[in-house]
Write a structure and sequence with these properties.
The protein has 853 residues and is of the alpha/beta class. Helix content is 38%, strand content 18%.
């Protein structure tokens, strides 16, 4: 045997095209795919074998091909245009943010998430949370929002899915080659790799920092797989959502505490920290500790400052959706953390518990974030309401529906998920530079101008491309499982580009009910076997490696797809990922989504389908509860509540069959000259009504306007001044000590009277205050319709006007006008809430006083 020494030879880019390397290392190209066409021209075979990875391509491409392409004038023209587009984008000073918030140009938002879906070649995501996080960064870049992001570098990535001959999912992990990816090591000023450390149970854990450029935004990734660590600690960041609870708490310490430590080491001082889900909640503890050390202040004052700097977004509609750790595990890993904070161990642990929790055995990451973050939000209007009820016990004195949790409905990064051919079509018919105004609804009205035949032609070609993917994917899966070629061909040859094609692709969690459409197999047999109106179903998705029930759903679909009556009608794809999802959400005709309401926090796959002209057929849950307008798709079931899951499943499945048989299939096949005018109209309505409203461009403008900027401004105006923070802390202390002694009385208010609809009455109350200043309260009239069961609905809250005051005796009289717009029985009462310019939400303090006499 010969012994060889290894030498890596890097192709050299000719000067005329030397910017290819720079742009390849910025994921700007992930949504500006015109740039990627350049690589296909250089060597299309290599491009495909590199799985469309420009960094890897430039390391393997033949030098001669680079030299030849650098002489191609057509190529150079396209190259120059792409370089110009990139440079103009990166250097632009007239972004949405700079035009709308010039006074906040020095603010910085730090965004923390456990996963990011940025591109197929970077497998540090598992599903919807990662897709949302990746799209968040891209739109922040597009809008010019000053944002930096923190995540973890999973060298094993997320698993590749295989489905065996019995239909069971198996998981394969592969190490990612960092040298072949647009991931760069962060360097110190002296040129060394940046390595930071955090304490875990009193011992050092060392973390190497990497960075990914996402347009104008930098994502920093944290990596414990370095030689400075023990073998145990080296594995902490290897796999996404891998391991047991011990592994999860270690990962979340690296993400939250390590992320704050890295930003400090980089010299970055964010104004706002945004926790995307509870995985990064430990960051609030590190921030409190740092502020106490730097400003020499108490725990309470440091906590107030951190409150004014933090946003928490919850994505779960169920209690179990949050990471909950045994207190013994938290105590082990945070041993000694509470002493420098000046609090006891019990006080430390109580930060992750409900205020009135009896069994103090667990630490909830979501509750930790909710208790400290100044701004909290769910991810759709319905989810915001569900979250207020779900987490109402965090503020036990406040009615659940008034819990301080707002909502920002999720969206999608349009130019990432829009099919390139549709993007070209939109460029032709929409207003020039429409991509700069994605979030404006007016941008989308011109979709009406696209000729029906053109839109349908683009859609059909996308469908044909999808069906080729389906054929290849299914063929490979069945072939690897030992199925005969004739049987495979019998199945795949029935793929029909003219058939109504329904897609269902998402994580296989039980609440998403992937098999609901098969509840009545006889009914589905009839629907799928009408040769005059063919229908085909395509399924894809992964179940969590530890979710056996989710894996059983995959197995069941596999089994149904091989039943004689369904062969060639139902197709199950293997290894769902970003690449094939882009074809699915643009190539099917109908996007099916039937979660168990109200358990879908938002869902974004339907938003991706909508902007591609694919029509949604969904439960009125998550975003679709807002997006559905009766003209842009179909709603499964109703908003009613059920006594059992079985009753709900039966009702919703019947709704699916009825709508398919009576609306969807007839509309699709009501064609003249190969086109259904009614279908195209619905496609256009879907694009127009959802394109802007459910984009991350709109989502980021909401986050900026309603959450980021208020926190930036209140921090700048008040919380950077320690004297003001100390004074506010004393005001809060006085409130907590004296609140129960507030007295609210009423004089000769109207009771048991009648008035006309549209009329109003004037009401009065008197408030006697203990050691609390009048300017620190808000007196409110609270009224609504009284139901037969004694509860009140359609609640209105009116701030009352101070009309008399006796400062010496601290007695104050208030009045308000109450209007009655419709008939019925109404009730009204009075209450007092905390008030301060430094208070982000009056409910945050968990203080409320109702009239008692």
């Amino acid at each position: 045997m010969y012994i060889f020494n290894k030498v890596t030879v890097m192709p050299q880019l000719p000067k005329k095209i030397d910017q290819l390397d720079k742009i390849s290392n910025n994921l700007w190209w992930a949504w500006n795919t015109e740039f990627l066409k350049l690589f296909k021209q250089i060597d299309i075979d290599l491009w495909e074998s590199c799985q469309k990875n420009p960094v890897k391509f430039l390391k393997l491409v033949d030098q001669e091909k680079l030299e030849n392409i650098a002489k191609d004038t057509s190529f150079l023209t396209q190259y120059s245009q792409n370089v110009s587009n990139f440079e103009n984008y990166m250097k632009s000073k007239t972004t949405w943010f700079s035009k709308n918030y010039p006074e906040n140009k020095d603010n910085l938002i730090a965004y923390f998430s456990a996963e990011y879906g940025l591109d197929q070649i970077l497998p540090i995501y598992s599903g919807g949370l990662g897709m949302l996080s990746g799209d968040h960064l891209k739109s922040a870049s597009d809008l010019g929002i000053p944002l930096v992001a923190i995540g973890l570098l999973y060298k094993n990535g997320y698993f590749n899915q295989k489905i065996n001959a019995q239909g069971w999912q198996t998981s394969e992990y592969k190490n990612i080659e960092l040298n072949d990816l647009p991931i760069l090591p962060v360097k110190t000023k002296s040129g060394e790799d940046m390595i930071i450390s955090i304490k875990d149970g009193g011992k050092n854990v060392y973390i190497k920092a990497w960075k990914v450029l996402v347009g104008r935004v930098t994502l920093y990734l944290l990596d414990t797989d370095i030689e400075e660590n023990t073998e145990e600690n080296r594995t902490t960041t290897l796999a996404l959502y891998g391991g047991d609870q011990e592994m999860r708490i270690k990962q979340e310490m690296v993400l939250g505490i390590g992320g704050v430590t890295l930003l400090k080491e980089l010299g970055l001082n964010p104004t706002v920290y945004h926790m995307n889900e509870g995985h990064s909640s430990f960051l609030v503890l590190e921030l409190i500790k740092n502020i106490m050390e730097e400003k020499k202040v108490s725990f309470q004052i440091a906590k107030d400052i951190v409150t004014a700097k933090t946003v928490f977004t919850t994505h779960t509609p169920v209690p179990a959706g949050n990471d909950i750790f045994p207190v013994e595990l938290v105590t082990k890993h945070f041993d000694g953390f509470w002493s420098p904070l000046g609090i006891t161990k019990d006080e430390f642990l109580s930060m992750g518990m409900k205020p009135k929790e009896d069994k103090k055995t667990s630490f909830n990451m979501g509750i930790l974030a909710l208790k400290i973050a100044g701004k909290k939000n769910g991810v759709s209007k319905l989810h915001g309401a569900v979250s207020r009820e779900l987490f109402g016990e965090v503020w036990p004195e406040i009615a659940s529906n008034e819990s301080p949790i707002t909502y920002v409905t999720n969206g999608i990064h349009t130019c990432t998920w829009l099919a390139p051919t549709l993007k070209e079509l939109y460029n032709k018919y929409l207003t020039p530079y429409w991509q700069d105004k994605i979030h404006e609804n007016e941008t989308w009205g011109k979709i009406e101008n696209i000729p029906d035949a053109e839109l349908w032609d683009v859609h059909q070609k996308r469908k044909e491309k999808l069906l080729k993917l389906v054929k290849d994917n299914v063929t490979n899966r069945l072939k690897n499982n030992g199925m005969h070629y004739e049987t495979i061909n019998e199945i795949t040859s029935k793929l029909n580009p003219n058939a109504l094609t329904i897609g269902f692709a998402r994580r296989f969690a039980t609440y998403k009910r992937a098999t609901l459409i098969f509840k009545d197999l006889e009914r589905m047999t009839q629907i799928l076997n009408d040769d005059s109106k063919p229908v085909q179903l395509i399924f894809a998705g992964k179940a969590h490696p530890k979710d056996v029930e989710g894996q059983e759903l995959i197995k069941r679909i596999h089994e149904i797809s091989l039943m004689p009556q369904f062969k060639g009608k139902i197709f199950l794809l293997e290894n769902y990922n970003m690449e094939n999802s882009k074809l699915l959400i643009s190539g099917v005709d109908v996007w099916l989504n039937n979660p168990r309401r109200p358990m879908e926090a938002s869902g974004t796959s339907g938003e991706k389908a909508a902007v591609n002209g694919v029509i949604n057929f969904s439960i009125l849950d998550g975003w679709w509860a807002e997006g559905y307008n009766q003209k842009n798709g179909w709603a499964i079931g109703t908003n009613r509540e059920f006594d059992s899951y079985e009753e709900q499943d039966s009702f919703d499945s019947q709704s699916i069959y009825n709508i398919l048989e009576n609306k969807i299939i007839p509309m699709y096949y009501n064609k003249q000259n190969g086109i259904s005018t009614e279908w195209i109209t619905t496609m256009k309505n879907s694009i127009i009504s959802n394109g802007g409203k459910y984009s991350t461009a709109r989502m980021l403008t909401d986050y900026t306007k309603d959450l980021y900027i208020p926190l930036c401004n209140i921090t700048t105006k008040y919380y950077n001044n320690l004297d003001l923070v100390t004074e506010f802390n004393q005001i809060k202390s006085d409130m907590y000590k004296n609140w129960d002694d507030i007295e609210i009385t009423q004089g000769n208010n109207l009771d048991n009277i009648s008035t006309n609809a549209g009329g109003e009455i004037e009401v009065y109350c008197t408030v006697k205050l203990p050691n609390i200043n009048q300017e620190n309260i808000e007196t409110q009239a609270y009224y609504g319709k009284i139901l037969d069961n004694g509860t009140i609905e359609n609640i209105n809250i009116t701030t009352m006007e101070l009309i008399e005051k006796d400062d010496e005796n601290k007695v104050y009289k208030y009045k308000a006008k109450i209007d009655f717009k419709t008939g019925g029985n109404y009730g009204y009462t009075f209450r007092v809430m905390p008030k301060s310019d430094m208070l982000l939400d009056s409910s945050n303090l968990n203080l409320i006083k109702w009239i008692t006499k």
